Amino acid sequence: MKKKNMRLDNLTAYTMLIPIVVLLTIFVIIPFVYALIVSFYDWSFYQESKFVGWQNFVNVLNDPLFMKAVVTGLKFSLFVVPAQMILAFLFAHVIRSMGSKLSGFVKTSIYIPTIISGIIASIIFVFIFDYNAGLANVIVNWFGVENQAWLADVKTALPSIALPAIWLGFGITSLIMLAGLLDIPDSYYEAADLEGAGPWTKMIHITIPLLKNVVLYLLITGFTGAIQQFELSLVMTGGGPLNETTTPNLYIFNHFRNDVLVGHSIASALLLFVVLGSISAIIFKVLNSEKAVDG
Amino acid sequence: MQANRGKVLTGVLAAAMTFSFVLSGCGNSGSNEGNANNQGSTNEATNNGNAGEKPAEKVTIEFWAQKFEDTTDAWFKKWTDEFNKSQDNVQVKLTIVPGDAWTQKLKAAQAAGKAPDVMTRNYSGIAPGAKNGEIMALNDYMDPAVFDDLYDNVKEFITVDGKYYAYPKLVEPSAVLYYRKDLFEAAGLDPEKPPVTWAEFIEYGKKLTQKGIFGASIAQTAPDLGWSSWGLQYNAAGHLPITDDWSKADVMDDKYKELLNFYATLYKEGIIPKQQLSAYADAAPFGQGKLAMTVSGSWSIGLFRNDYKDMLDKIGVAPMPSIDGDQTKPTATLGGWTLVIDGKSKKPEAAAQYIQYLLAGDPAIMIDFFKTSQFSKFSPRKSVDEAMNQDPAASADEWRKLIAEKVIPYAKAEPAYPWDISIAFATAIESAMKGESVDKALATAEKTINDFIAKSKLAGTNPQ
């Protein structure tokens, strides 16, 4: 009896898996294999493609701009992800302590940036960072500071682009964090209260450890998302000044746009895949995620 | 064991996740494409339906035009309709594609072998396209006489290995100086004497800078400098930063140092804004009164005449200043647009018939275009210019005359080498502006260009 049930379970499970397996095969596995193949060619749409071995990869790795783009992507994520996480953590706490009506309103409000397209946000922030009359310069003028070239100065360009990225991702990060917080049983805190633990101790010993999986998820999605940021620098700076804001995806896009042969773009995309995979692996390793501790 | 399996699983999960993110990047470009499709308007068959006439089997060809000014789009639509009505053999389906979606959409179509039969292409794309087989030689499909109508320098732009690969629609010089006569007077300068040397441009710029108004504006980011500084590269050194056979960089030239210093001085002295008010091609800030002088292409005339009518009396137009004041040296390249036939088109005859009708046929069609563009663009055809000179509005236009006589004759063709070369030199200009020493900036550019030549086996491949 038991055995039969299990087989039925398996059948159900496999049936449910079929759609995603089919979709993944069509949209992920086949294109991936195809991309791997063409990355070894001087791929042209009009002439016989030439096999060039590892040449495309060698070219990409020898291109100082590619390495710079990867570093830019990492720097950008280091601006965006920690800031977003800390803000979201604090904000989620605030929302948790609110009444249900007010918290509903706040949750909706902070979610709005998430549904705004990155392009629209970029344009709004281009106005904010306008040299002549942008909001940012008006504000620094109050403090007697002269106009800043936010998007054209090598020092400020990347942080200026990170700001809209934080703003865009803040809402969804807070909501996920909030869900994680609400998932922690109140009894733990009550027990801690009985033991006389203060708010700080509770945060360090209860909240943060139990949020580990949520944090892990947010870190992985945050990092992979931020390194692949593309439209903000495309619209706001075009990758400048002096390639300071050329993220890896923008680098790939520029090659895709300008190159006659497409092999270079594909090789760099595959190398970016390797970079992202390694970063995710490192995060997993460092946080050493197991199954949820509370069970 | 259990823990191990967990790790493997999470590893796989991580891979799958990153993968889906990589993919979602691709998905975006796909959806752009969809938008482009929706935005692009298609002109469907408008059968004039004469009763009793046998319904002819029309050959349908696809035509993608990049989105330009609204007037240009309207012109394409109007005359494509006229063409479809004028004969029974060919039906042209026009799609207007926004500029930012153009490359993705076209590349995707090319990869799928579904590129349009006819498309717009700029001059610098012709030689590489011809070399790569992306576009077709037109000699066999068009009347040879229509090519005789072209000015000789423009004919060179479309010729690769002795064959014509495009038919030009217009030329427009990439750099013209616009200045505010009223602000010149207020600063004690003669409004009829715009600067002719770079030194004067800097000097006037300093005098014209005041609170809220910058003395000048010129390209200042590498992507803009990449193409807009070609003319000044010629102006300074008489050559581009690469040898004619494309075998090595030709950057170490004292004149290029002067060029970099010119840009760097403008930037460091605060004559141009520290952060550009708009891209080089968009002269709107000048129209809005935020600049005393601006360097932009001839197309900006159309912008001023359409959108800033009350400014027109105050605007002066002059050739871009030259390194030493010699105004017969090139200061601009002639950019512009052509129509080409896709290398894999199955209906080249029909496509050529359309191109010939639209660009090489009745001069009235092209005159209609130059009128709607407010004479901010120029004809590559002698017959159109002759006809236009009969036209009172055109012949009385002083700005058109000035550009036609003082800028275009000395302007150069856009280089056909890959963009990487242009951006390498432009990066040198930008880094000099941002404080790098001129020598170091040029040395970096030289190395980048030489590396690129070696990597892409560029030596000896110049098609022109």
UniProtKB/TrEMBL annotation, chain A:
Family classification: Belongs to the binding-protein-dependent transport system permease family.
GO annotation, biological process: transmembrane transport
Cellular compartments per GO CC: plasma membrane
Ranges that cross the membrane: 12-37, 76-98, 110-129, 161-182, 203-227, 266-287
InterPro entries: ABC_transporter_permease, MetI-like, MetI-like_sf
Subcellular location per the Swiss-Prot or TrEMBL entry: Cell membrane
Name recorded for this polypeptide: Sugar ABC transporter permease
Taxonomic source organism: Paenibacillus arenilitoris
Record domain ABC transmembrane type-1: where: 70-283
From TrEMBL, chain B:
Signal peptide residue numbers: 1-24
Keyword check for Signal: yes
InterPro entries in alphabetical order: Bact_solute-bd_prot1, SBP
Coiled coil region boundaries: none
Stretches with biased composition (Low complexity): 32-41
UniProt keyword Signal present: yes
Residue span of region Disordered: 32-54
Keywords of the record: Signal
Protein name as it appears in the record: Sugar ABC transporter substrate-binding protein
Organism listed in the record: Paenibacillus arenilitoris
